[in-house]
Design the sequence.
């Protein structure tokens, strides 16, 4: 058994070039991928590249004076982080400040406007029955859209929203169907969906005559004070006025009727809505998909949980017996009607969709908000500031200088102590640095990794970890030479012992980095991630570059014969030549006499 094992070892020792070729191919492939992707530099975090800092202040809603508490603030932070990360924005910092403020830092190079909508939008979604609907009395007087009210300066794109279940058709027709089109503004900015529910005659019903539609209390023959006040509020509401639109529906409780606004074909309409029939929290999942079977394009498909599916079936069954507009249900997002499709039969499939002329970004943004749920609090933007990279650049410069000084000291130590072996160590450090740079550049577009100051610190610390692995191996080789072995056997006999030590050391470092990454947030995670990455690369470099390179150099005369500048000179290592004893002459033995 020993002979085959020896043969395998000899074969492995004789072909260290394979490992060197393998790591060379890996470097070339990764470098080619970096240039092909167009990202030739690592993506920088907000402290190095600058970005946008948003301060959000929680506001109390009517009837909820104690809603601003630590639990709700922590929940809001977690939801905001999920929303921003859902957009592919990494290194965004979301943290509380004081009792009622949340600070959101978004690095440069990301869509800050979309991120602002994501973090600041409450995303409270309700399905309410439509009781009355009326277009704005003077649409021509509607102010031109502006960024302040979330509208686009260009005309609203025509879009559709539909609620479907199973085999329900999504194409509008003059006769009643289980689908509808709707129009209204959704969040984020520019998101549109349109609805025009057909009247019994087949023409859209959005005229002032809708105001005469009876409410449930009117059908009972009696109108309460609350209903009268609500009717007065509805009559006075002018959705063409941006200020009134902003206040419409604010503070309405789910169990109460309310008035609010929505947009139909570029014209704002007002709505009188009944109590909430289905809550957005009963949405099990939401996904943006591209409809290849129709001209709908991008749409958001929502699946309800069991309770939501039952409620949705009940409300659509009730509405199907009503006339327009009371056969419509309004999809209300943050107190604004996104769409108001009509139904003619109960939809029991447990799903609904909002479809229209959405871009992929708009559909994904809406589905992202719905998937991660509504914020427990409402927020207002207190300030939005642009963060410059001036301070971070100064800190980075100081850090790089410190790193260069540390690297210089390591190089001086290696040259002075290990002499020729220092060339192997320096080459290994260069290979490790090249791999680290290329991988960091690729991880930016791949997973959103951004290099921040703590990450730079992690890379500097990794210099010591990598150098430590070389020193362990070199000292093992020297120990073998001190025991009287020549260099080539010493290199191979020292490797198993050094390999165990290196693996244990790197495992401890990687475990510490993994724990630090798991229990921390924000920039500290950048330090932990970089430390873990460079630790893994240290194992790769030592196994595929350092050891094979030393095996090859051991065959050269300079290292193999122990030149005094090789770092492996037996005399400098204290190796004593073997003592040769002189043999004493042996006296002849005289034969004994018989």
Sequence:
């Amino acid at each position: 058994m020993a002979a085959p094992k020896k043969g395998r070892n000899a074969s492995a020792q004789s072909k260290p070039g394979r490992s060197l070729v393998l790591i060379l191919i890996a470097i070339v492939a990764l470098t080619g991928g970096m240039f092909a992707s167009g990202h030739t530099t690592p993506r920088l975090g907000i402290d190095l590249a600058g970005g946008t800092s948003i301060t959000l202040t929680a506001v109390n809603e009517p009837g909820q004076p104690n809603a601003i508490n630590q639990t709700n603030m922590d929940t809001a932070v977690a939801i905001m982080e999920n929303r921003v990360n859902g957009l592919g924005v990494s290194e965004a910092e979301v943290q509380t400040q004081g009792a009622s403020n949340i600070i959101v830092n978004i690095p440069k190079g990301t869509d800050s406007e979309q991120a602002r909508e994501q973090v600041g939008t409450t995303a409270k979604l309700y399905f309410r029955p439509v009781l009355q609907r009326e277009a704005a009395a003077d649409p021509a007087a509607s102010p031109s859209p502006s960024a302040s009210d979330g509208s686009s300066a260009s005309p609203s794109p025509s879009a559709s929203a539909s609620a479907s279940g199973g085999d329900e058709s999504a194409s509008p027709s003059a006769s009643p169907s289980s689908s509808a089109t709707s129009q209204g503004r959704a969040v984020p900015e520019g998101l549109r969906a349109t609805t025009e529910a057909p009247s019994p005659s087949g023409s859209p019903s959005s005229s002032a005559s809708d105001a005469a539609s009876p409410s449930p209390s009117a059908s009972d023959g009696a109108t309460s004070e609350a209903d009268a006040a609500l009717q007065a509020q509805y009559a006075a509401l002018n959705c063409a006025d941006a200020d009134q639109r902003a206040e419409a529906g604010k503070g309405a409780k789910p169990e109460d009727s309310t008035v609010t606004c929505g947009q139909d074909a570029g014209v704002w309409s007002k709505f009188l809505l009944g109590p909430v029939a289905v809550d957005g929290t009963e949405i099990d999942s939401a996904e943006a998909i591209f409809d290849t079977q129709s001209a709908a394009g991008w749409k958001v498909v929502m699946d309800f949980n069991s309770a939501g599916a039952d409620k949705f079936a009940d409300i659509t069954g009730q509405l199907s017996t009503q006339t327009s507009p009371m056969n419509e249900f309004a999809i209300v997002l943050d107190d604004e009607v996104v769409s108001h499709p009509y139904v003619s039969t109960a939809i029991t499939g447990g799903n609904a969709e909002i479809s229209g002329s959405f871009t992929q970004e708009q559909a994904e943004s809406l589905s992202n908000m719905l998937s991660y749920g509504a914020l427990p609090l409402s927020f207002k933007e207190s300030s939005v500031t642009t963060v410059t990279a001036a301070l971070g650049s100064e800190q980075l410069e100081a850090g790089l200088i410190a790193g260069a000084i540390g690297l210089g000291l390591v190089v001086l130590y290696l040259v002075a102590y290990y002499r020729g072996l220092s060339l192997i160590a320096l080459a290994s450090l260069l290979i490790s640095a090249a791999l680290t740079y290329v991988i960091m550049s690729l991880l930016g577009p791949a997973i959103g990794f951004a290099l921040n100051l703590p990450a730079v610190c992690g890379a500097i610390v990794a210099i010591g970890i990598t150098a430590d692995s070389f020193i362990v191996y070199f000292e093992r080789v020297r120990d073998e030479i001190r025991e009287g072995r020549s260099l080539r056997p010493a290199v191979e006999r020292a490797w198993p012992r050094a390999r165990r030590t290196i693996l244990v050391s790197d495992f401890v470092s990687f475990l510490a980095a993994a724990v630090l990454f798991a229990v921390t947030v924000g920039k500290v995670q950048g330090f932990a991630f970089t430390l873990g990455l460079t630790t893994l690369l240290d194992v790769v470099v030592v196994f595929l570059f350092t050891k094979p390179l030393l095996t090859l150099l051991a065959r050269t005369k300079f290292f193999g014969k122990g030149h005094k500048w090789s770092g492996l000179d037996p005399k400098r290592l204290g190796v004593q030549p073997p003592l040769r004893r002189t043999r004493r002459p042996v006296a002849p033995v005289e034969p004994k006499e018989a």
Notes: Residues 1-12, 138-222 have pLDDT under 50 and may be disordered. The first strand starts at residue 51 and ends at 59.
